[in-house]
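Dig into what follows:

_____
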Amino acid sequence: MAKWQLTSPSRCTSVGGLLIVLSIFTAMAGVIPILGLLFASFAPTLFIFGAILFTYGISRSVGLNIIAAGILTIAAAFAVGLNTRITTYYSDIRANGLAHTLILSPLEGLVGQPIHIRTQTPEISARKYQYSHAMPRCRGDSCLATSGFKTPYPWLEHDYWHEKVEETVLASGFSKAAQGEQAPTLLVTQSIADMLSMVHFELRDSDGKLMAQYDGQYRHGFPFETEDGVDSAKVSKPLVLEYLLHGNILNKLAARQVTAAQAYPLRSFLKTTTRLSHAQGRSLGLMSPLDPDGGALPSTKVDLEVLSQKDYEPVWVINDEPLSRTSKWSELAWDKERWGRCKSLLKPESPNAPLMQTWHLFVNDPTGRKKVRYTGNIICDPDAIWFLDYVIEKGRTTLTKYSIDGDLVYRLSFEKPTEPYGYSGGILMTSFKATNGFLQFEWWNTKQSGYDRQVKRVMKIQLKEPVSSQKEVVDGGRSNKASQPPLP
């Protein structure tokens, strides 16, 4: 009996055809919970291997030698693997990148810097992954199984990035300039044609001189493919075929050869081309290649004075019931009165943003341009606001004090007391008070255990407030007034 050989033309043709058919059924296996998704992920690979074997078998069957058949098979692999995207990949690779940034002179200043925003497009957006294709569509809330296929959805942040122009500029630390005010200008445009969009930014100084610009090309789809935002229930063209054609390894390798324009380009452009200093510095995510130290104001180092100390052995356990609506620890540590006062003295610049992901403005600031960020807990008294930061200075706790109208008073730090193993320390908010030039508070070392809080040590501490006000931000050897420029 002749030995069965995969390399025989007829065998290659048969196995190749079988793999092609099998890939279609495998792609549709996503309806099977969990295991079906694994099968579906291999479908494009099965498809292209099937096409390779099928092509080789046919070419050998018509009499081509091994070398000629091999060359034809490689060509067919690229033709099947890249298919309708061949010309697009070629042009994108030749373009040597789809985004270009030019920086002639970085814009430097303070957070609150006024800027004119010129745009006819309140929001810019594009595919997050420009070479995306039809993919299995999750069924239900979690992707344990699929229900057909989908293209990238323009309104989903997972598939498309979205940037609201004004909101992004303000989040970067700028303030809107008044009409007629002498200030830099940012131009933002996005033009869409067919399946491409061009994003263009220009940053000019107050005299109109170009400082930096950005040009990025973004895809919203490819020729001969289903438009974004539809699924298998809305189109006659089978999305499963697009998945098999564009989800293979050759498509992925080709996409890696293109330096695609990045997502969220406006945020990146402002971070790369501007340097706005702020007293709270690095903790705000203000770091950039132009600003390696984050522009943080150096703190005044002060020594803490321990007035008393109590160690608990065994630990003091503050019990809480699992179903209780109130926490005994919260009642002890949360300063309700000051929290309410903070809400009346500060307002979020972006009301719908999470608390620690937006700037806050001082209600009593007439300019409306003095900004701060929550870096942890804050303490609001009738005449002053303190911002705590346990992270920005390694091994130290930083306190930044502002007047209620937004003027920086001082920024001090002290070395954290040595912690008992496993018990982190912090200021008990309800114990904090400023009196006669001193700050007095209790420092508690605790840890959470289930619903209970375990207290290991309580220290009563006082610090002497700095005598001279620090109202300058030291930034790369320059001194700038910390108060923001007033309205004209």
Observations:
- The two ends are 97 Å apart (CA to CA).
